[in-house]
Design a protein that fits this description.
The chain has two helices and 13 strands; from the N terminus they run ααβββββββββββββ. With about 180 residues, it is mostly beta strands. The chain folds into two domains: about 45 residues; about 110 residues, Methylamine Dehydrogenase, Chain H. The strands form four sheets. A four-stranded antiparallel β-sheet has the order 4-5-6-7, with no helix packed on it. It has a four-stranded antiparallel β-sheet with strand order 8-9-10-11, with no helix packed on it. The chain has a three-stranded antiparallel β-sheet with strand order 1-2-3, with no helix packed on it. A hairpin with a 5-residue loop joins β8 and β9. About 20% of the residues are buried.
């Protein structure tokens, strides 16, 4: 008990002397694109310091360019926030970023049959992802560890994806007539 008390007192003293090292950054990841009528087309992800107590508050700390033809749409984080997934509206691609490696690197995942990527949900065990494909009757099931598609879930008839689901166990319910 005495050792625990000494450890706690030592930790409190350290935090009081070095408060900056005890705090964590508060960062935001925002996707952007230039207007379509611009001669130079640009898309990217900006990482912004949103900690009001930071000297860099409101500043872009990092700018990650994306392919100019991607039409990036949303950023989704897996359950443990170790990866970010960027859906695309027009290319049949899903981008993934490993958030444990700095500088961040993008990996492109081809998602055949998914021309308009909308939203993505993750299984409870974080091992499978399910992006929805707007304007179609498809949901892609993918291996979230290897980041590759493994199956296509499709409805029959005239069903199409209208909006995303809240749970992968009800992924088929996103298909609306």
């Amino acid at each position: 008990m005495k050792n625990l008390l000494c450890t706690l007192i030592g930790a409190a003293a350290f935090l009081a002397i070095f408060p900056a090292s005890a705090g964590a950054e508060i960062l935001a990841m925002v996707n952007y694109e230039t207007r379509k009528d611009r001669a130079f087309r640009r898309e990217g992800i900006a990482i912004i310091d949103v900690d009001p107590k930071s000297g860099n508050y409101g500043k872009i700390l990092m700018d990650i360019p994306l392919p100019h033809d991607l039409a990036n749409h949303h950023i989704f984080y897996n359950h443990d926030a170790s990866k970010a997934y960027i859906t695309a509206l027009s290319t049949g691609r899903l981008l993934v970023m490993d958030l444990k490696r700095v500088p961040y690197r993008l990996k492109t995942i081809r998602v055949p049959g998914c021309a308009v990527g909308e939203d993505i949900v993750f299984s409870d065990d974080n091992k499978t992802w399910y992006p929805t494909c707007m304007g179609s009757n498809k949901i892609i099931g993918g291996d979230a560890v290897a980041d590759k598609p493994v199956k296509t879930l499709a409805t029959t008839g005239k069903a199409f994806i209208k909006y995303p689901t809240a749970s992968p166990s009800t992924a088929a319910s996103t298909a609306c007539l």
